[in-house]
Each structure stands twice: as structure tokens, then as C-alpha cells.
Design a protein that fits this description.
alpha+beta, 2 domains, five-stranded antiparallel β-sheet, 5 strands, 26% helix, 22% strand
Length: 146
């Protein structure tokens, strides 16, 4: 066979293989279902923190049980605990009312995966959002201040 034909076949096989890889993988190469790169910092905001935990979350209750046991796992870039569910406490300094948290969890579907979403307010801040897929991908982002 002519070398040009062989090289052409190799290139076509490579392109077809690469295309099928990208079509089978609706997320980015790292498997992160949240799409674009994490949000960066801006005055009083972020950055968006992303994690991957080795867990299976199959319901809102599983999500809540994960949160109950995640103390010290969902941290900001400085190692501070970001998951402060202060707006779900019956009184300042009190315990989290997990029934309130459960009733506030929303679900969405992205790329065929269930996404659990919790909007929460740590301290006097507002607008924080925690997202977690059933296979353990987590995104946490929020702003605090003026």
C-alpha cells in the first residue's frame, strides 16, 4: 500500500476515536459535571471550591446524611469550613435543624445526573450555594460583604 493511504487511514482512525471519546463524555476531561472552570475570586466572593468525594448519594436524605458527617471536609482555599448552615439554626449558636435543611434541598438534572442544590447563609452572609451530584462531585460558591 501507498504510505499516503496508510497515513490517511491512521489519521481518520485517530479523529474518529477522539471524536467518540468527546461525544461519550458530556463533562469535561476531569469528569467535572459543573462545566466551565470554577468561578474565581471577586471582591467579597469566591473562589468556587470543587471537590470529588467517593460517595453515592441517591436521595435528599443521603445528601443530608453526607452533610451531617462532612464537618471539616468542605473547606475554602484557606482551610476554613465553608459549610456553615447558620440560617437553618433555630437560634444563633444553636444546632442545625436538619428538617429545615431537608425541606430546602432542590434537585436538578444535569447530564443525566441528579444534582442536589442547597442555598444557605453562613453568618451574616447570603447567597451561598452548595451543589452535589449523586456520584460525589461538589461545588460550593458564595459572596459575603458589600
Amino acid at each position: 500500500m501507498d504510505k499516503k493511504i496508510i497515513y490517511g487511514i491512521i489519521i481518520v482512525v485517530f479523529i474518529v476515536g477522539l471524536s467518540s471519546f468527546f461525544l461519550k463524555s458530556p463533562f469535561n476531561l476531569s469528569g467535572d459535571p459543573f462545566g466551565a472552570s470554577p468561578k474565581g475570586t471577586s471582591p467579597n466572593c469566591g473562589p468556587e471550591d470543587r471537590y470529588k468525594f467517593d460517595v453515592a448519594i441517591n436521595s435528599k436524605e443521603d445528601f443530608i446524611n453526607f452533610l451531617k458527617t462532612s464537618e471539616g471536609k468542605i473547606l475554602d482555599q484557606y482551610g476554613n469550613n465553608w459549610l456553615k448552615l447558620d440560617n437553618f439554626k433555630d437560634k444563633p449558636g444553636g444546632d442545625v435543624n436538619w428538617d429545615k435543611v431537608l425541606s430546602s434541598v432542590d434537585t436538578e438534572n444535569i447530564g443525566g445526573k441528579t444534582l442536589y442544590v442547597l442555598n444557605y447563609n453562613p453568618g451574616t452572609c447570603s447567597g451561598f450555594k452548595l451543589k452535589m451530584t449523586g456520584d460525589g462531585h461538589v461545588s460550593n460558591y458564595g459572596c459575603c460583604g458589600i
